[in-house]
Amino acid sequence: MTQDAQLNNARYGENDDKLKADREKTFPAEVLERAMKLELEKAVASQVCDRTHILNVMANGGKPFSDIELNATTPNKNDNYDKLNVELRGTFPVAAWRQALETGSVQLRKLCAEVLSADCGRKLLKLQLSSCPVFNDEAL
Question: Are 102 and 133 in contact (CB under 8 A)?
Fold first, then answer.
């Protein structure tokens, strides 16, 4: 959360979780859906060398390596790409779940569940559903 958002929370006496939920419910569902399907290895960068460096660092798991390896042709597939994709995708359902409930979007709710269930490395899941009018056992 930005410092401005924290100041606004303190100024108006609202808690972080409610403000966060209010911001997230207006985020475009289409963007969240695309984010939950992202593949980092297919991303583009403004400079080809930047893309090559980023993908090679990801493929190498962040371990030290030479300039030759840094500039080498990037692999098309790599277990580390898959691991990072799953981890990054897993951040978006947390923001989208409440919106999926409140809008009644079965498609978004299913996608959130699929993406979260694939994120086996997640140790903590915190959803802000207080004051969500449609939060009940059936919605889960």
Answer: yes
